[in-house]
Amino acid sequence: MNSQLKSIALMLVLGIGVIGVYNHMYGEKKVSVKVINSNDYSSTFSKEERAKLDAITSASVVAENYIREYTPNGFTDSDSKKAIVIVGEPRKNSIMYDMVYTTMRSLEESGVEVELRDLYNMNWNPVLHPDEFYSQKDGIGSVPEDVAKEQELIKKADYIIFIYPNWHDSATSIVKGYQERVFSRNFAYEVGEKGHRGLLAGKSMFTIMNCGYLGGGRGYIDGGKGIEDEKWNKYMLAYKVFDDDTADWWGVKNLGRFMNDRYPQPTSTNFEKDLNQLREELKTEILKAFSLNAR
Q1: d(CA 57, CA 46)
Q2: What is the crossing angle of helices 3-26 and 47-56, to 10°?
Q3: Where are the alpha helices (DSSP H) in the chain?
Q4: Which pLDDT score is estimated for 106?
Q5: Neighbour-count burial for 87-122, b at 16+ CB within 10 Å, e otherwise
Q6: Cβ atoms within 10 A of the Cβ of 185, count?
Q7: Is 0.90 topped by the overall pTM?
Q8: Distance between CA atoms of 230 and 13, rounded to whole angstroms?
Q9: Residue 79 in this model has a pLDDT that exceeds 70
Q10: Pairing of strands 159-165, 82-87
């Protein structure tokens, strides 16, 4: 048997093993999807059902006793710097959402006001309606109410921060839909006789993302940890090209990304230590990217 066939056989054995363990633990109490309603993101799973699913899937979660929730205070009329944090992560107990909490806590502890836009909590509709196409693409007609509300918040923000997991190497659909609907013509950019011009000058953009790719890096360019570092840098440089182009289109400054591809393992005896290390590294990068001082 050649090496390729051996690999396939091993994958089949492992897959059957996982299913066998699940059936042994839970018998016929299998979890099924009850309803999908794109206008309502509240889960139909019970807390117990979600726990079962988290136990057998690749989802990286934080045990309940390690979760450090944080609720930001939102924008005020003060002269303090302001950051709008736009999140496209459906699970509040994930490593990804732990990074959301860390981001908001780090910013507010440094004197930056934070406005959270949790797109799943908001039941945000990411789909561009046909009637909305003309205002979004050509600046003709009125702006939908939900979009207008977000645009007012972005006007107040100095920093625009996108946080989402890596699904197919780009922003999750709910975040991409937010970008498509909110950063519209005559708000984020204009096209006139002299060509294109971004309209959000003076603002900065930053992205936080879980990679789930190489398992060999954390941070940004040159953030490899000795595991395929050359490939890691190619991966990060590709994102830089993408982000620079988006930032230029809107007229903002791209402050880069924090990419996490080294997950604390829930089964590890060092889980708490590894989780706190991730939190500290993210905080350090945020303070560096935004030129902030910890209080």
Answers
A1: 17
A2: 160
A3: 3-26, 47-56, 95-109, 133-138, 145-156, 173-182, 229-250, 271-289
A4: 97
A5: bbbbbbbbbbbbbbbbbbbbbbebebbbbbbbbbeb
A6: 17
A7: no
A8: 33
A9: yes
A10: parallel
